Amino acid sequence: MPDPYVPKEAIGHGDGGSAALAIGEAESLERRPGAPGAGPPGPEPLGKPRSLWSDAWHDLYRNPVFVISALVIVFLVIIAIWPQLIATGNPYRADLAKAQQGSQPGHPFGFDTQGRDVYTRVVYGARASITVGVCATTGAALLGSLLGGLAGFFGGWGDTLLSRLADIFFGIPVILGGLVFLSVVTSTTVWPVVGFIVLLGWPQISRIARGSVVTAKQNDYVQAARALGAGNGRMLLRHIAPNAVAPVIVVATIALGTYIALEATLSYLGAGLKPPTVSWGIDISTASTYIRTAPHMLLWPAGALSITVLAFIMLGDAVRDALDPKLR
Amino acid sequence: MGRYTVRRLLQMIPVFIGSTFLIFFMVYALGDPVAAMFGDRAPDPATAAQIRRDLYLDEPLWKQYLHYMGQIFHGNFGTAFNGQSVTELMASAFPVTLRLTIVAVVIEMVVGIVLGVFSGLRRGRDIDTTVLVLTLVVVSIPTFVSGYLLQFVFGVQWGWAAPSVAPEAPLNELLLPGLVLALVSLAYVTRLTRTSIAENARADYVRTALAKGLPRRRVITRHLLRNSLIPVVTFIGTDIGALMGGAIVTERIFNIHGVGFQLYQGILRQNSPTVVGFVTILVLVFLLANLLVDLLYAVLDPRIRYA
């Protein structure tokens, strides 16, 4: 729970009618509950000032972009865990006699070049993409915000070293690095891909985290906490982290979408996931050879992939708008 | 300005060494270049040992790296899998990719900035919302999907463009691949320009310029645009390096024999000199592009002065 008395609320913009109130103003209103019409009429009674998070939530659940993308993501996560719910077939079952045939009853998306049901494979493909996206983002966000946060807080040579290290990882072209790194891996699980994305993804998060910790560190309430004798750990966890975490969440949500696209690109180039894992990237790569004769084999997994990436990027966009109204 | 440039150039050195060493480490320590030379057959141990000695592969990794870098600075990048020298490959591949990148950058600059200015000046209206939604859709379609779709529609169905590019890669055949390569960045440029224009359109200096009777067109091009383009220039500068490295997908789809094509061949055949050599040059391009961007700041915004 974030500390309610931080300046960030002061910039948190109000909903529809009620103007954004500075904290002091809201408090003085609270103390004089009898004063009528002292503030602009809002749809809600002025009570405890809303924290950044409840303010953001208030914005989010009325934003159609957020609601739609969140619903799509919930749906994707559910079928990633239980694909059997909507696809009863077996994604590996091949019937060569039906190879490359188009849509027919019971098989709405048609068959791929080995006669496997495209619909079933599209549904089962969600698992690999979501797993890679969620795991890689979690890993990169934890590693990046930990390193970046500590570097920003303590400064000194560790900070310099980390910034240069991040520069080094930034200098490596992502797809090329992925091809080189993953071409020597023989494992068919998702973990090498996740590991690689974390390896190249953390510097982005750590830069953001470092920047926002440096900003939060200079706030008066942090200085006050230090003057009152708070230790480093307490200051970081209680005062700085809650106020520095918002930009990290925004960047991580958008990154999740791009990581899924990256995984598909690497799989398409033959370096990411490997069969027998069912992956949209692999299926698109196979189908690309036959795009002139059987475009449906490419279009369905490509559509699923694009919708997934779009949902995460839109979610990130909506969260950013809610958490940082200045950027709108 | 001069001192700043020198300081930045010096700062680039550790980053350059770090990045190239990382790639070097991945290629030489994780893969086995000698085994790759023999393809599917197992090499004769004595021959393998001899090759290892000839290629400095029996030395510790950091010594190999120093030796490699020493050779590079003498212009010797080694030999590719087909016996050509890597420098020859580069001489044929880099101009092609450079042309492709230039086409892509021009497209993303012209279309992106125009769209961004249009929607930024009409903030909140229908056209703005449409452009914003379109950019999100474009961002979420991976290049290899949009590449195949555009190739199929324009190249195969309608016959407007060549579906694959000749080895000489003439400029007119690179238009479609350039568009594919530019698409995602194009969307980012549009969004960046739009945000920046929308913010600055309400600035005092714009109101002043309008109030003193300057024509709207002049206010937009000379006052608003110049101040709004700084973040866009940053993005495009850093993007040049990314585009050259990211062209690997586009080049594969349209069969363009550029950097990405050669690198892909090098990785498939585990030819270490090709991979490390090309990536080294790409890292260098990326770093120099970043430096150029920082120096451009001062040109665009006279308030910024480098000591």
Describe what this molecule looks like in 3D.
- The complex is a heterodimer of chains A (328) and B (307).
- By secondary structure, chain A is mostly helical.
- Chain A is 65% helix and 0% strand.
- Chain A has one domain (53-327): MetI-like fold, CATH 1.10.3720.10.
- With 307 residues, chain B is mostly helical.
- In chain B, helix 5 packs across helix 11 and helix 11 packs antiparallel against helix 13 (272-300).
- The longest helix of chain B is centred in the middle third of the chain and has 36 residues, at 86-121.
- Chain B is globular.
- The mean pLDDT of chain B is 81.
- The chains are: A mainly alpha (328), B mainly alpha (307).
- At the A-B interface, helix 6, helix 7, helix 10, helix 11 and helix 12 of A face helix 1, helix 6, helix 7, helix 11 and helix 12 of B.
Point out poorly predicted stretches of chain B.
Answer: none
- What share of the residues of chain B does DSSP label as strand, in percent? under 5%
Task: Write out the CATH superfamily name of chain A.
Answer: MetI-like
> Globular, elongated, flat, extended or rod-shaped: what is the shape of chain A?
elongated
Q: Kindly state the mean pLDDT of chain A as a whole number?
A: 76
Taking the alpha carbons of the first and last residues of chain B, their distance comes to 6 Å
Give the radius of gyration of chain A: 24 Å
Summarize the SSE layout with pairings.
The complex is a heterodimer of chains A (328) and B (307).
Chain A lengths: L7 H4 L11 H9 L20 H9 L3 H18 L36 H37 L1 H16 L2 H10 L7 H27 L2 H8 L4 H37 L11 H9 L7 H28 L5
Helix pairs in contact in A: 3-12, 4-5, 4-12, 5-6, 5-8, 5-10, 5-12, 6-8, 7-8, 8-10, 9-10, 10-11, 10-12, 11-12
Chain B lengths: L1 H29 L2 H5 L7 H10 L6 H13 L12 H36 L4 H15 L2 H15 L17 H26 L3 H8 L4 H13 L1 H24 L5 H10 L3 H29 L7
